[in-house]
Amino acid sequence: MNGKYFDTWLAIGLNILHYRKEQGLTQMQLAEKCNISRNYMQRIETAASSCTLNTLIDIADALNIPLKKLFEFRD
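Structure (tokenized):
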């Protein structure tokens, strides 16, 4: 994915990666909890693909974090 919102999607993906690793989950384990493929999870984490808000809610729920944590961008 390239374009206007790439940096935002990359920051979201890095947050997902951070919380996933913090909990010791693999991409496959998180993907299974969200009912999506591991490949799609990888594409979300690397900003190769965007996803729906519903998917972000599923990811936050699977990580047991508030949705807003995925939007807390670090400088």
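Helices lie at 6-22, 27-34, 38-45, 53-63. Residues 6-22 form the longest helix (17 residues).
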